[in-house]
Amino acid sequence: MPNILVIDDDFEACETMISLISRLSYHADKAHTLSAGLLLAQNTEYDLVFLDVFLPDGNGLDILPELMAIPNPPEVIILTGKGNPDGAELAIKGGVWDYLLKPTSVKDITLSLNRALKYRQEKVGHNHQPDIPLEGVMGVSREIQASLKLANKAASADCNVLITGETGTGKELFASVIHKNSRRAQENFTVIDCTALTESLVESTLFGHVKGSFTGAQLDKKGLVKTADGGTLFLDEVGEMPLSIQKVFLRVLQERQFRPIGSTTEQTSNFRLIAATNRDLDQMAEEGLFRRDLLFRIKTMRIHLPPLHQRAEDITELCIFKTKQLCQEFGLEPKNIGDDFIDTLKLYSWPGNVRELFNILERSVIDAGNENTLYAVHLPRSLRIEVAKKQIARYDGSQETADKLEEPTHLALNIGQQIFEDIFDRPLPQLKEFKNAAEKTYLSELLRQCDGNMQKIMEISGLSRSHFYSLLKKYNISQQDTHKKV
């Protein structure tokens, strides 16, 4: 018997749904808050969840990742009285089966419910492909696991795939993993760097040429499209492909046929296409910078790779893997990784994502040399300074403080330079001790630069007069230094 959960804070609507489900001879449970509903879903195996959006303790869409992370997750139908297009888009992207607005007829609810259960029965009844080998793709976070599940599906199919994500998130690695676990694994994985394509060389690069077709063509040359015959053609940074080249490639993608330069006959290439980009191709299509017909062709299946700062729980596993690899490469004894090393990395913003992490790990391993353990002191000073500033701002609870600390020209950077440099040349103290030292230095320099002018001190520091005096007392800084000008 199917097991269904209704999460809705409207008691009357909830009871109506329970009654409807019972008449269909299905079992039903109910919850009136997100927390209670999520707890039930995580501890009971449900086939289907009816989920309201606006609940007393939050937005129902916010728990979709937790629901999808459940082993054998339930199908989800959103049933809300306050729907909107953006909410519907977020819900569908989050993996829901359907999005219904109240009041909805019993017929429509029943139809959606039965379709979802039929789909689930068929899905569960199939023998799923085993998970593909990670081969460098790793992580336990639900974000990267969701991407890996899609990669599994892509590997078992032969459709076109578009991989999106910031620079350094591992798009080419994912494309390679999909290829290696597909039925084309024994054939070529051919990479085309779209940023390097020029209009003068594109046809020769993609389609090849025959001997004598132009000056310098002394031999026949096979193009990259033909090289990928039977295998996978990977278009890296497809968003950088010029419009004129997009038109040329569209025909090849549609027909799988092309003509080398100087040839009078068409050739064919049975390739599987995987494309990747760090740009928003939908927005580019709206602006006329990317052909919409080409976009429809390449995004049959889309896989988004999350930035590293959204999957910080994966940093430990990535560090262990890469450090072991680097030590073997450099002929070093295996290294331990200190807690402070990992803690510091988890607080960094990672604009360069996994690629930047691996580069920093290589630098740290080299810096550590024959030492047995990697500590935070082995990390680049610029990274440690950024993390230290964020910790201080977070401790203060002031976003304004955080913003000011990010400004290179701000007074805090100048007066804090010495304390940051000194503190990173020895083992890190406790955060409270570090904060106190930085705060005392700031106050002393504030007094000196403002020459005791209280109005100026208040304006620069953002402190109230009473708070300022309490800090002077806390750090035993003489009040006579203010000169009491106001």
CATH class of the largest domain: Alpha Beta
Structural class: alpha/beta
Helical fraction: 40-55%
Instruction: Determine the CATH topology of the largest domain.
Output: Rossmann fold
Fourth-tier CATH superfamily name of the largest domain: P-loop containing nucleotide triphosphate hydrolases
Strand fraction equals 5-15%
Strand order of the largest sheet: 2-1-3-6-7
Shape: globular
The largest β sheet comes out as: 5 strands, parallel
Work out the number of β strands. 18
Oligomeric composition of the shown chains: single chain
**Average residue-wise pLDDT:** 84
Domains (count): 4
Span between termini: 79 Å
Number of helices in the DSSP assignment: 21
How large, in whole angstroms, is the Cα Rg? 30 Å
Low-confidence stretches: 399-419, 481-486
Report on the architecture of this protein.
- This protein has helices at 11-23, 34-43, 64-68, 85-93, 106-125, 142-156, 171-180, 202-207, 224-227, 243-255, 281-286, 292-298, 315-330, 339-346, 353-368, 381-396, 399-406, 411-423, 431-450, 454-461, 465-474, and strands at residues 3-7, 27-31, 48-51, 54-55, 58-59, 75-80, 98-101, 161-164, 189-193, 208-209, 221-222, 232-236, 257-258, 267-268, 272-277, 301-304, 336-337, 373-374.
- The chain is of the alpha/beta class and 486 residues long.
- It has a five-stranded parallel beta sheet with strand order 2-1-3-6-7, sandwiched between helices.
- Helix 6 packs across helix 7 (171-180) and helix 18 (411-423) packs across helix 19 (431-450).
